[in-house]
Design brief:
mainly alpha, two-stranded antiparallel sheet, 2 strands
Amino acid sequence: MSRRASSTGDTTTGRTLPALTALPGDTAAVITEPRDRAESADAVYRFALGQDLKDRELLASAFAVDAEPAFRQVAAHWAGRRR
């Protein structure tokens, strides 16, 4: 089976990305993938908005209950790039 032909352009890299990676015959994956992508995007938006608004509850809602975020390595990388 071949992958779906529809695609979307990535404006940052100019590459063409598949709209769905699920194979057309895999009905469960075709149904689940867009929902998973929407839920992931929603979590990213809640994370960013929670940070911007300094809303701890909104920020926490972006993570799974048992998540253990580890930002030390990223923070250390950006620490030297202060304005």
